[in-house]
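Example record

One chain of 311 residues, shown exactly as stored in the release files.
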Amino acid sequence: MGGKLSAHPSIGVHRRVFELPPAQVSAAENWVAFGSRDPRSAMRAASVCLVREDAAGVQTYLGYRPGDSPLGSVAFPGGSMEHEDGTDVRWFGPSLRVWARKLGILDQKMVRSYIICAIRELFEETGILLAGTDEQSVAEINDDQEWMSMRESIAGQDIGFSTFLARRGLGVRTDLLRPIAHWLSPNFALRRFDTWYFSAAVPQGQHASLLRSKGRWAAWLSAREVIGKRQSQWLGELVGQHDTVGLRLSQITTPAVELILERMAQANGAIAYLSRVRNLGLQHPNLLERDGRYLLEIVSSEDDADFTRRL
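Predicted structure tokens for this chain:
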């Protein structure tokens, strides 16, 4: 199905409909069978979409997430917010006040937690560290094994991310992040995230790699190729996991990931993608039942160019 679009000219609204991943069907059935009720609380989360130039446009880094993750079985690096993400750290780039305006969040402590969560999760899952000793520098990887050990320690909460930064005299380079989307998991989901998505380029001298203890699959892929083949089982077969083989893009990821990939595929290179002005309004998928099938519906206003533009 891959995000079929329909329009309602009388009310200026566009709708996109996406297939529901098989692992979520049971939760959807229970939600419908027992009627509307209060959804489970959503955990706060952040995700970072890495981009780099490709001969065909934009490449991005996708990875496999086991356990029916609210971010999708195939998703961008990211994860849930931790208490330690609220710790004060050296800060380079726009002030918290500026970031609060960008995200539309009044609580500046919450803004800091989202941004630190994004930078920490990116480092844990890929080894890309958006940090430096000043506003112009970025950390360099001199020893891959030492870097991996640090990632493992932070992921296992043996050492706090703020402590890791302080010991190396590093501050977070928040100017290297671009906010691109805000999504809330559908109400029926058993695990729900309130997720801010950011994008970033890979700093010079760094490279992405799987976390040794948790990673199963990750790769740089052309966004245009992923979107161009989304009606096939190509990506699911490439990932090669029990819950991806034989499935289409919409069945192994979330509408958030698929729509972000669409926008990457439309961009004329990584720089153009990173510099694009975006609508950062909250997106919240609705559950639909149609002919015995469960679908996710995304509704957008007519003036949301990012949402309505077609490939």
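Notes: Residues 108-126 form the longest helix (19 residues).
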